[in-house]
Amino acid sequence: MMGIKVKDLASLLNLSPSTVSLVLNNRPGISEATRNKVRKAVKDMGYEELLVSESQEKKNILFLVYRKHGVAPASTPYFSQLFSEIIEGVESQIKIKGYNLMISYTDKETILEEAEKIKKQDVEGVLVLATEMAEEQIKIFTDLKVPVVMVDNYMEHRKFDCVTINNEQGVYQVVEHLAKMGHKRIGYLHVSQNANNFTERYYGFKRAVEKCGLPLNDRDIIWIATDGGEAVYGELKHKLEEQKDLPGAFFADNDIVAICAMRVFRELGYKIPEDISIVGFDNMTLSEMLDPPLTTIQIRKHKIGVSAVNLIVEKISENTEGVVKMEVGTRLVARSSVKRISE
Fold first, then answer.
1. From the Swiss-Prot or TrEMBL record, what is one GO molecular function term (predicted)?
2. Were both Cys, which of 19, 197, 260, 317 would link to 232 (CB 3.0–4.6 Å)?
3. Strand, coil or helix: what is 272?
4. Per-residue DSSP letters for 60-117?
5. Among 328, 322, 323, 329, which Cα is nearest to 308's?
6. Out of 1.10.530.10, 3.40.50.2300, 2.60.120.10, 3.40.50.170, which CATH number does the structure's domain 165-297 have?
7. Burial class of residue 143 (count of CB atoms within 10 Å of its CB; 0-12, 13-18, 19+)
8. Which tens digits make up the pLDDT trace of 26-47?
9. How many whole angstroms separate alpha carbon 3 and alpha carbon 291?
């Protein structure tokens, strides 16, 4: 704003900054009396140029979807479900906020070019689905002159607003559940990719095990370098068949890893959950159709999308300072892949 800030105008009118912002941008959800009050005050103070007329077109917010290997979202089950549920939240909230949604796709080969394109586009803000982004990709957006919100990723050393999963909460819910079911030794199937979600789950697992008073043995952490379904299966089979003394329960970094592990354990002669219990993370649709149905962590993906829109609109409308990290909570979905251990 020129000459006066939203929060200052709101204070003068005894209204919230968000209410004033909605009126200035001609957004719905405000009573006619309040709308008239704000518009009259703005005109009386000589700031009529701040009012968006009803005839003006809706402004644009860009949703940039990043895939590391350039694979379309629908081509992999995990990313397809993640993307579809987040985009549903984004689309529904964008309409409520009165903006147009633009969607674009990029990968590690085209991201520099895409960032340059954004500088020339008519957008008020950018949402970036950054699940698979490393720090070198995220820093590319530093020079953009519009607000940027990272979705499903967070880099401590990069000053971007973000909406992420509360990974630590989710992992603690897993370990606490297994401990309450009587498990004293818990293994971990950890994806060692350079992805923030997996890093947070790794450190969260170690803290959760300690907090629950359980032992942690490094040999019970199985490191997985690959990320495709069949590749994960092959790597897990190679590593697990070499271990003769396995924990009675495992936590897997996501449902894909858990599903592959269930297949490997069966091929090695173990029964689930009679011999080995297993818990995933993500609550993919497929998880409840397995035999046995998989205990896992529910991520509120729709809520992530809604929260990301709310945050970017706040940054656009109020030009607020400071970096916001918003974490969306998780919920344990207990099914039949965990056995209760008798005392």
1. transcription cis-regulatory region binding
2. 260
3. coil
4. EEEEEEE-TT---GGGSHHHHHHHHHHHHHHHHHHHHHT-EEEEEEE-TTTHHHHHHH
5. 328
6. 3.40.50.2300
7. exposed
8. 666 678 889 889 888 888 888 7
9. 64
CATH 3.40.50.1950 fits 58-164+299-328, yes or no: no
Cis peptide before 292 (omega within 30 of 0): yes
CB 199 within 8 A of CB 132: no
Tokens linked to 332: 């344990």
Pairing of strands 330-333, 296-299: antiparallel
DSSP class of 295: B
Which structure tokens are listed for 287? Answer: 């998880």
* pTM: predicted TM-score of the whole model, two decimal places: 0.80
Please state whether beta strands 60-66 and 100-106 pair in parallel, antiparallel, or not at all (unpaired). parallel
Domain regions of the chain by residue span = 4-48, 58-164+299-328, 165-297
Identify which of 91, 154, 117 has the alpha carbon closest to the alpha carbon of residue 302. 91
What is the predicted pLDDT for the residue at 218?
Answer: 92
- With the C-alpha atoms ordered 210, 216, 218, 224, is the resulting torsion angle positive or negative? negative
pLDDT tens for 89-131 read 999 999 899 898 998 889 989 999 999 999 988 899 999 999 9
pLDDT tens per residue across span 122-177: 899 999 999 989 888 888 999 899 999 999 999 877 789 999 999 999 999 999 99
**Helix boundaries (H) for the chain:** 6-13, 17-24, 32-44, 77-97, 111-120, 135-138, 167-180, 196-211, 229-240, 255-267, 301-318
| Residue 173: closest CA among 304, 295, 326, 341 | 295
CB atoms within 10 A of CB 177: 19
- What are the counts of helices (DSSP H) followed by strands (DSSP E) for the chain? 11, 12
